[in-house]
Amino acid sequence: MKVLDRNFFQKTIPTSAARIFNPKDISRCRKELTSSRDALLNNRVDPVRPDPEQERAQTGVKCLLLRPEVLPNDRTTWSPRLRDLEQDGTLGVIPYQLHLDYDYFTYSEITSATIPPPEQKSDDEIPQGFALAGHVAHLNLRERYWPYKHLIATVLADKNPMVKTVINKLDNVGTENAFRTFQYEVLHGEDNMNVELREQGCTFKFDFAKVYWNTRLHTEHERLCNMFQEGQAVCDVMAGVGPFAVPSGKKKCFVWANDLNPESYNSLVDNIRINKVVDYVKSWNMDGGDFIKKAAAELLTIEHHVDIFPKVKFSRSAPQSSDARRRNLQPIKTLVQPRVFSHYVMNLPASAITFLPNFIGLYSPLESSPTTGHLYRSNQRHRRGTRIANETKEICEEISRQLGHEITPDTPEVQIYDVRDVAPKKRMFCASFRLPEEVAFRKA
């Protein structure tokens, strides 16, 4: 089957049911027969059904489905409670033909029934997972599943009500396009890539076709943002639409966020406004290397502070009075923007490490710098079972080469965090390390 035929999925299972003569007894019987383990327990099946006899059904008689092991003509298969309810005339036990249709079966069951299994155990399994960005489900199908791609997409949308559009990626993110966007084909629904989603209590809106977004990195976004403290200055060099910058602004961090992609920049500006973090997050659209130098120099000279006021309960009946009370309040504290960034974030796994030479001599006018860098890197994954130490060593060696200063896994405050697989045989890491004084203060 390459075009979905929903009528194909029909199945009838012989079982039994408790015919409940008085509709007022349905709730009580269901509770008691569930407790006695006579009732059919299946989250995908509604256990209360109309009576199979049409005349009884028209008068409101209902049945409660029982386990197939409960046989209508064999009272030894009944629990004592079922026998008591039958004996006092509350119910009768009858045969029942349970009919299942397409709505019952799961995505996995339908695709397994329609797509031929792999010829060898080493071949790819039938695709089960997908990435979700708002209403768009994103697949990355292997070539052997291309003949079934529209069937897969249709079933996926049927079984996931939040999905309106299903797409399939056609090239590699980060290699075909400098902005990490990708070519795609629409397999189901409209070609509408304007999405809205929530992450870390923030709302993000963007055109998924024109910017980079990976929903599967939500845990990593949160992990890194949890390192930032209120009042710190954070420089997000490759900010995208703001998955690090906007939540950090919510935490009252002063964030300078930049992205080279004009579409990402426009969405970043909108997301800063939507999430009301304008006082904390500023945005730029320029080359990342130039931004590193520009941001470090300008932060030394720009003064900025934010007054923090106590929360005022909003009154719908008198909103103006609430505003008036707010204007008369004194700030409980004032956050002053620091002169030096506490954290640099460089989320461009394919090439972020090549931006490190821009940090050489970056703080030569100063005497001290508390800066920590968080650099994302994609490494070719070693064969299964190989220790993570190999990747850690390779990343530290490349950081050392770019900075002209030795960094090792044993250097204090160095952490190489294993994030996740981002592609077949490719693993994503986050290298966090303190910018060495010998690098930061190096004279030209």
TrEMBL record:
It is an enzyme of class 2 (transferase). It catalyses: guanosine(37) in tRNA + S-adenosyl-L-methionine = N(1)-methylguanosine(37) in tRNA + S-adenosyl-L-homocysteine + H(+). Residues 130-437 form the SAM-dependent methyltransferase TRM5/TYW2-type domain. The keyword Protease does not apply. The keyword Methyltransferase applies. Gene3D superfamilies: Met-10+ protein-like domains, Vaccinia Virus protein VP39. Keywords: Cytoplasm, Methyltransferase, Mitochondrion, Nucleus, S-adenosyl-L-methionine, Transferase, tRNA processing. It comes from the Eukaryota. S-adenosyl-L-methionine binds at residues 221, 259-260, 287-288, 347. Pfam families: TRM5-TYW2_MTfase (PF02475), TYW2_N_2 (PF25133). InterPro entries: MeTrfase_TRM5/TYW2, SAM-dependent_MTases_sf, TRM5-TYW2-like_MTfase, TRM5/TYW2-like_N, tRNA_Gua_MeTrfase_euk. Its EC number is 2.1.1.228. GO terms for biological process: mitochondrial tRNA methylation; tRNA N1-guanine methylation. GO terms for cellular component: mitochondrial matrix; nucleus. Its main location: mitochondrion. It is found in: Mitochondrion matrix; Nucleus; Cytoplasm. HAMAP family: TRM5 (MF_03152). Specifically methylates the N1 position of guanosine-37 in various cytoplasmic and mitochondrial tRNAs. Methylation is not dependent on the nature of the nucleoside 5' of the target nucleoside. This is the first step in the biosynthesis of wybutosine (yW), a modified base adjacent to the anticodon of tRNAs and required for accurate decoding. Monomer. Belongs to the TRM5 / TYW2 family. Belongs to the class I-like SAM-binding methyltransferase superfamily. TRM5/TYW2 family. This is tRNA (guanine(37)-N1)-methyltransferase. It comes from Neocucurbitaria cava. The lineage of its organism: Eukaryota, Fungi, Dikarya, Ascomycota, Pezizomycotina. The gene is TRM5.
